[in-house]
């Protein structure tokens, strides 16, 4: 029960992070630059937390180098998810940008559990667990369509996107990366004997990749505005802290409740948190009331989570 509450709380923080980082992007002038700033704040927060909890900043690198090569992939998966979302949103629209990655997350989470990939605990895929996964995706679709005014179908411009199927497949793929990241970071947490150490490793890789991406972007795209973040509300800097806490929850939960269940509990929390932000109009987000349809979508997600967890 404690694990589920931790997952729900971390999930609620995810849409807060998204809203905060959206404000940061306005000041940074580039999505990659904003993401680099957010990841750097996450890393600094985790290093402070590591110093407080461990009494130093040393990491057992010798253990990491004895593990399979994929143990370094957590940060890579996070950057792929971030970059992929930036790419598919203008191609597919808001609803599919939410629903397709969720499909990938849920599907890959159950597959990882079924086969025990990335040193995860093995949990067989049953018909009821599959039905629960379908309910979770259906609930996300209901909420996303309701938030976009019921326009579940793509716009005419989006429908004419060349290679639309490829973009849809990419949407599912980047969602799968989140489940892979959850499983990998969970194993790193066991190797490091600390969720904080595991999260530091993940964000070190992510910061390195995003720094490289920013340098390439600056060198190759002359039209990019090179302004620095100087002004803005204080809370726009907190997205990195929330991202670090979300990653810590992933590491903490994945080996306690399984990758698939971890992903789904975080999804339920993030969807609920997003609705609460819309209802209150927080962080400069356009205010939208929680409707019966949105509440029904969350209820369907919870029912799916119950099927997966209890049956």
Automatic annotation (TrEMBL):
Pfam families: DMT_YdcZ. It comes from the Bacteria. GO terms for cellular component: plasma membrane. InterPro entries: YdcZ. The chain crosses the membrane at residues 34-57, 69-89, 95-115, 127-145, 165-184, 196-219, 234-253, 260-278, 290-310. Keywords: Membrane, Transmembrane, Transmembrane helix. This is DMT family transporter. It comes from Candidatus Lachnoclostridium stercoravium.
């Amino acid at each position: 029960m404690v694990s589920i509450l931790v997952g729900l709380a971390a999930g609620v923080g995810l849409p807060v992070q998204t809203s905060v980082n959206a404000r940061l992007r306005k000041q940074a002038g580039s999505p990659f630059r904003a993401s680099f700033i957010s990841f750097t704040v996450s890393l600094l927060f985790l290093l402070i937390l590591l110093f407080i909890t461990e009494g130093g900043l040393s990491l057992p690198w010798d253990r990491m180098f004895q593990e399979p090569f994929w143990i370094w992939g957590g940060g890579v998966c996070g950057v792929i998810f971030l970059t992929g979302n930036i790419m598919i949103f203008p191609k597919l629209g808001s609803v599919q940008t939410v629903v397709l990655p969720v499909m990938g997350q849920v599907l890959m989470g159950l597959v990882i559990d079924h086969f025990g990939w990335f040193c995860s605990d093995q949990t067989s895929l049953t018909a009821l667990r599959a039905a629960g996964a379908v309910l979770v995706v259906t609930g996300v679709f209901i909420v996303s369509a309701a938030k976009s005014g019921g326009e579940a179908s793509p716009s005419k411009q989006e429908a004419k996107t060349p290679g639309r199927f490829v973009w849809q497949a990419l949407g599912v793929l980047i969602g799968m990366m989140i489940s892979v990241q959850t499983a990998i970071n969970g194993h790193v947490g066991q190797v490091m004997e600390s969720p904080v150490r595991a999260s530091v490793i993940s964000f070190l890789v992510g910061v390195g990749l995003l720094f490289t991406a920013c340098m390439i972007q600056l060198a190759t795209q002359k039209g990019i505005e090179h302004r620095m973040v100087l002004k803005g509300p204080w809370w726009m800097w907190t997205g990195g802290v929330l991202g670090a806490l979300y990653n810590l929850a992933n590491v903490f939960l994945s080996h306690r409740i399984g990758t698939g269940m971890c992903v789904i509990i975080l999804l339920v929390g993030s969807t609920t948190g997003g609705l609460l932000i819309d209802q209150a109009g927080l962080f400069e987000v356009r205010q939208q009331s929680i409707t019966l349809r949105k509440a029904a979508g969350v209820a369907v997600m919870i029912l799916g989570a119950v099927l997966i967890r209890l049956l």
